[in-house]
Amino acid sequence: MFRRALLILAVLGALVAVFLARQSTQEDELLISGRNNTVLFLTDSHHGMCNAHLATVSALIEYHPSLEVHYASFSGIASDIERITEIAKAKNPQAKIHWRQLDGPSLVDELNAAGGAQKIISPPGPSGLKVFAEMVPSVMAAWSNEAHLSLYHQTADLIRKIDPAVVVLDSMFRPAIDAAVNLNRTRVYITPNALTELLAGVQPKGAIFWKYPGTASGLPFPVPWKEIPSNIYQQVYFITKYLTSPVIRNKRSWLQQHGIPRAVNLFEMFRQDVPWITMSYPEAGYPIEVIPDNFHIAGPLVLDVAPAETQSAELAAWIKQAPTILVNLGSGFQYDESRAVVMAEAIARVLDASDAQVLWKMRKLGEYGDAFREPLSKYVEAGRLRLESWLDVDPTSLFKTGHIAVSVHHGGANCFYEAIIAGIPSVVLPLWADLYNYAQTAEYLGVGIWPNKTLAPDWDAAGLAEAFLEVLSGNRSVTMRENAKALARRGEQYGGRKLAAELIAEMAAKGR
């Protein structure tokens, strides 16, 4: 019986390794490089993913001004490109980004049309597994058939027209990936995602099943012995659903019928001759044994184009008044009324029990009144609480003021690493899928707390307040802060956005 189980695990491990890392016959085709020293970025406008690209492009035009740099995306980041360019020009007058705006819906637009974040909010473990298994293929094939085809042609036309030596891709922007793949262009991926998210399947001895927790499992690392059967079930369920997804199969079939031979290719992204540049680094995640040669660890790929004082002197001055808790649950999250009420009550408890202040990025989901704000009115009037629908200052710049004491976030890859790289401990409030893994990682590294685990994805005010206060000034706060700062120092040693820019510049120099 035990031998049979080992055999099954070995077969499944081989399946995952093949799925994630196999080299197809396409790799026999030599990738095509275009004009020497020309770079084209193709990304979605979702800040959770593209901030790593924006950080890289800012370093590219600052340190390699002789390159011709093009950036194509949606209107949502046009102002970011403009701001990056203006600040880079102050350091180097030759700095320039050729902006190319795409016509069509962004990933967030398509996801919002399908129900947005509220649709994918789900508990960790088996009870949320079905939602997770359906979510991933839907995100991979997020665009409607017509929008995908249109964006494919737009990005393919840009590649032909600009003829770049290297195309820089966002792993979530599938139409552009299809364009680069079908034109067989030299390309590189930049990602904020954890190494284990990308490489658990190629670790030895089938470790993806018995050692590494499933992405949406909510299990700690290493997986406890009693939870291994559950973890195996969740991993096999997800892999099977992913490989046999009718959403992907139907999208691929339709696109192939409309002139895209290699559409939504699940294997292409792991070609050994296509580099990945990762914001994640080994010390800032679960231990990992095997890192393929085409994976380059960059560390801090964070957008930090100017001091907070330059971006908003008024906000920077306010932050300096007292230790500040930043509550920022990502660019795509909106509060329904029930979560707004719970968060408001938690913040009121924290402000009542400490001398801290709170900067709360708060956007409503749907229409409801402001009754949730009643417990907070006295703190708003006293200037100890600010509610902002959007932050006009890069989070990294806020962190660098030295006055952000706690980062409260949802566990998105970008938020997670921004806090770690800044040396700031976190309270992580995961709501779906991979967010649960980042919450567990924060606790494993000793740099954060995941409160209300048994209630996830819901919260209660008492649990939130207790976690906020513990990270702010509790018994573990000093240790968490020391751990975070140690990880930040290690991350800086990798080179960050400057290293990413150098790697891309080297690829660009090999063009025609």
Tell me, what is the CATH class of the largest domain? Alpha Beta
The largest β sheet comes out as: 7 strands, parallel
The percentage of residues in β strands lies in: 5-15%
Architecture per CATH nomenclature, i.e. the level-2 architecture of the largest domain: 3-Layer(aba) Sandwich
CATH topology of the largest domain: Rossmann fold
Shape: globular
- Terminus-to-terminus distance: 59 Å
Give the overall pLDDT as a whole number.
90
Structure report:
- Residues 1-21 form the signal peptide.
- One of its GO terms (molecular function) is UDP-glycosyltransferase activity.
- This is Glycosyltransferase family 1.
- This protein is of the alpha/beta class.
- The chain has two domains: 35-299 and 494-510, 3-Layer(aba) Sandwich (Rossmann fold); 308-492, 3-Layer(aba) Sandwich (Rossmann fold).
- 47% of the residues lie in helices and 12% in strands.
- The chain contains 22 helices and 13 strands.
- The protein has helices at 2-21, 47-63, 78-91, 107-113, 116-120, 129-140, 145-162, 174-182, 195-199, 207-210, 228-243, 246-257, 308-311, 313-319, 337-353, 377-381, 395-399, 413-422, 435-445, 461-473, 477-492, 496-508, and strands at 35-42, 68-73, 98-101, 164-170, 187-191, 276-278, 295-297, 324-327, 357-361, 385-388, 404-409, 426-428, 448-449.
- The strands form two sheets. It has a seven-stranded parallel sheet with strand order 3-2-1-4-5-6-7, sandwiched between helices.
- The model is unreliable at 1-18 and 20-27 (pLDDT under 50).
Q: What features would you highlight for this structure?
A:
Rossmann fold; 47% helix; alpha/beta; 512 residues; single chain; 2 domains
